[in-house]
Amino acid sequence: MLSSNLTPYVVPAVLWCLIILSVITWALLVIKLVQFGRARALDKRFQKSFWTADSIEQGESITDNSSGPMADIAKAGFAVITGRDIAPGNKNLAHQIDRGERLERALRQQIERERRSLEGGLAVLASFGSTAPFIGLFGTVWGIMGALVSIGETGSTGLQAVAGPVGHALIATGMGIAVAVPAVLIYNFLVRRLKAGVHSMNDFAHDFYALCQQSGFQSGDAPVMRQSDLKDNATVGQKTHATA
Predict the structure, then answer these.
(1) For residues 143 and 10, what is the distance between their CA atoms, to the nearest angstrom?
(2) 219 conformational bin, left if phi > 0, alpha if psi -120 to 50, beta if neither
(3) Is the pLDDT of residue 196 over 50?
(4) What is the 3-state secondary structure (H, E, C) of the chain?
(5) 44 to each of 36, 41, 68, 102, how far by Cα in Å?
(6) Suppose 86 and one of 94, 143, 153, 231 were both cysteines; which one would form an S-S bond, judging by CB atoms 3.0 to 4.6 Å apart?
(7) Cα atoms in the Cβ-side hemisphere of radius 13 Å centred on 7
(8) pTM here?
(9) Which pLDDT tens digit goes with each residue over 163-173?
(10) d(CA 85, CA 152)
């Protein structure tokens, strides 16, 4: 009796809930595409300016006037090689830590912060993709239960009395699947974009570390090595080690 009375409210509520989840899913897709696109454009512009700088000092100046994930990674790195990462009261103790290790840790931590920023909202999409079918199934089960109770009350067993309520209840399951499939596809697509972005940040951090290592982890007038120069030096070093 309770099911029959609540069915006109529960099933529509489930359908509206699924519609809201669908709207949020597509809105998140637009928001994340804008976020990833903006981050990629900023990183591309920053890398072009940074790797054409003539010195580390100029590269630091470019970094201070830039924004984006890679610029923030470079800022974290420059904070270490200039000593700005050390609180004044802890300067003597902190200087005992190897600067290269501090730089590596700072770059890794900044990459993790950027990753967390870019992956915001992905857990919501994953939750929608996994729960939407069950929400739809709940609406269907409740609708069928209400239809059966109503049939038991009226004693009508004709096809029209059964097919109408049951068919209406099955709409909820269909809606749940219609929400879950795009949510899962969008989640997988954005995760691939996120992994590609993190991979690019790791490559930049590796090149930045090599640059700082080449300058003795000091900020000064040392020329900034291009990415191709860093790779050439790495290749020469490997060949020299193999010859030895």
Answers:
(1) 8
(2) beta
(3) yes
(4) CHHHHHHHHHHHHHHHHHHHHHHHHHHHHHHHHHHHHHHHHHHHHHHHHHCCCCCHHHHHHHHHCCCCHHHHHHHHHHHHHCCCCCCHHHHHHHCCCCHHHHHHHHHHHHHHHHHHHHCCCHHHHHHHHHHHHHHHHHHHHHHHHHHHHHHHHHCCCCHHHHHHHHHHHHHHHHHHHHHHHHHHHHHHHHHHHHHHHHHHHHHHHHHHHHHHHHCCCCCCCCCCCCHHHHHHHHHHHHHHHHHC
(5) 12, 5, 9, 26
(6) 94
(7) 20
(8) 0.77
(9) 666 777 888 89
(10) 74
Residue pair 151/162 in contact by the 8 Å Cβ criterion: yes
Does 53 have pLDDT greater than 90? no
How far is it, in rounded angstroms, from Cα 109 to Cα 103?
A: 10
With contact defined as beta carbons under 8 Å apart, do 40 and 74 qualify? no
Quick: pLDDT tens for 72-105: 999 999 988 887 777 666 555 555 667 788 889 9
- Count of residues making up the chain: 244
Spacing of C-alpha 32 from chain mean position: 8
Q: CA-to-CA distance for 145 and 161, rounded, in angstroms?
A: 14
Query: Whole-angstrom Cα distance, residue 8 to residue 29?
Result: 33
Cβ-in-10-Å burial (0-12, 13-18, 19+) of 241 comes to: exposed
* Residue type for position 120: G
